[in-house]
Amino acid sequence: MKQIKIFGHRGSMGTMPENTLIGFRHALELGVDGIELDVQLTKDRELVVIHDETIDRTTDGTGYVKDYNLHELKQFSAGIKFSDLELFDEQVWGNERIPTLEEVLELITPYQIELNIELKTNVFAYDGIEEKVLTLVKKFGYEKKVVYSSFHLPSILKLKRIEPSAKIAWLVVYNLSRPFEYVKSLGLEGLHLYKDIVLQDVKYGQSVDEYSIRVWTVNDQKEIEQLLARNTIETIMTDFPKDAIALRNRS
C-alpha cells in the first residue's frame, strides 16, 4: 500500500501566515511532500502568491491585487494580521511580504517537493497568466513536480493546450456522478476534491488507478485518519501538516 502524501495548504496556514515564504519554509522543515499555493497577477503583470483577490484579509493594506504593481504590494506586511496564531512573532512576521511565484520556486527547488499551483482565475480573467506560470516553472526546470489546478475549468484547459505535458486537476466542491468520465474527456491528471465529497461517498473509496485524488482541506484528526485508511487517496491537503504527518507516520 502506497503512502499517502501530505501537502501543506498555503504552506502551513494553521500555524503560520498563509502563502508566505516563512510559512512555506516552515512546511519544508516539517517534511511535507508538497505545497499548495495560489497565484494572481499584479497590475504590472507579475505573478504573486496570494489567495484572495483583495489584500484586506491577509495584509495591512486594502484593495485588489490587480490594482497594485509589485513594488506597491511589497510595502504591505503579509504577516502582521495573523496575531491570533500561537507562533506569532510581531517583529519577524511584520516584515513578511507577499511573495512572487519566482521567490517561492527559488525556495523550494533545492527540496524538489511537489507543488500545486492554483490559478485564481474564477473571479478575474488575468489574461495570459497561464503562459506566464508555465514559462516560470520551465525556467526552474520544475515541470515534472507541478500540478496546476483551478475552480475555473477553462483556465487549466487553456494551460493544457499551451503545454500538453502539463498535469492539470479540477477543483471540485460537489459530487460527480461518474468522475472518470470527466477525467478522461477533459484530459485531467486528477481531481482536487473537497473533503466532504470523499468522506461521504463510497465510490471515492474504491480502487482508482486512472487518476489522482487529492483532498482539501482536511484539518480534523478523525477525518485525516479516515482518509489515511483509504488506499485510493493520493494526497491530503491540510492547514496543519505537522499533525497530519504525525498521524500518517503512526498509521
From TrEMBL:
Xref: InterPro entries: GP_PDE_dom, PLC-like_Pdiesterase_TIM-brl
One Pfam family here: GDPD
Record domain GP-PDE: where: 4-248
PANTHER family registered for this protein in UniProt: GLYCEROPHOSPHODIESTER PHOSPHODIESTERASE, CYTOPLASMIC (PTHR46211:SF1), GLYCEROPHOSPHORYL DIESTER PHOSPHODIESTERASE (PTHR46211)
Full protein name: Glycerophosphodiester phosphodiesterase
Record organism: Metabacillus rhizolycopersici
